[in-house]
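Progress report, Aim 2. The chain analyzed during this reporting quarter is listed below.
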Amino acid sequence: MTDREARAALPGIVLITGVAGVGMVAVLATSLGLVPLYGDAELGLDGWRKAAPDLAAGAAETLRIAVPASLLAAVIGLLLATLMLVGGRGAVLVRTGCLAVLAVPHLVGATSVGLLLGDGGVAARALAPVVGDTGWPALVGGSWPVATVLELAWKESAFVALVVLAAVAPGHARRMQVAAGLGAGRWHRFARVLVPTATPALAVSSMVTLVYAVGSYEVAWLLGRASPEPLPVLAYRLFGSIELTDRPAAAAAAATAAALAMLLAAPALAALPRLRTGLSPDRGLS
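Predicted structure tokens for the chain:
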């Protein structure tokens, strides 16, 4: 990034940092009892003590959803980007499909996945002659968050595909022609030219997807099991509790989710200079 580009981006960075920073300070202050819903402010760890029994299980459930969903979205997104780079009518259809998927809210997508994969859903009814009346697995609300992972992967793969396409498309045809001229077949052009060129954008978009999945509430709430709850679901439930003293515990759960997201994002931030260099369109020719 040049100095001019950095100066142009500075207002947006200051605004985003300010809004997020004020929000995090408010959450931390609430978790420490400094912003009570009623009564006097009193510094303490009561909120953290109240949420502590559920935080570890909530973090594990959050990672159980976010990690496989991000990996699946990365694989599908790379394949979709590859199809779009081929060109032709198929590429137009895939690109249109990705844009349509991005326009669908997660809540609508989660509802659709629930109707598709739930007990008595479309898939269970269609496959009833094969699996029987009681043979359909608990994909929604079961011990493994299958439906939650599939919904997040479905939505976020479109995001990953478009990011990879935007990063790789400049110079892609020239790189493929050079590789083909050197005798590389289709598989070698994919594995040794396209994949290395797409890796920086794929890593960044996958990290964004992972952080988003850590903080996602509505999909896990609608498609996940009742216990243990992912951290966003736990925080929202405690925040809406009729017990007003649960508000610090809700803030503690939210702060834990934010810390988990920042911990996962740290590797991407540390690798940002190398990723920025790798986003060069001519990287594949070097």
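The first helix runs from residue 3 to 31. The two ends are 20 Å apart (CA to CA). These observations will guide the mutagenesis work planned for the next reporting period.
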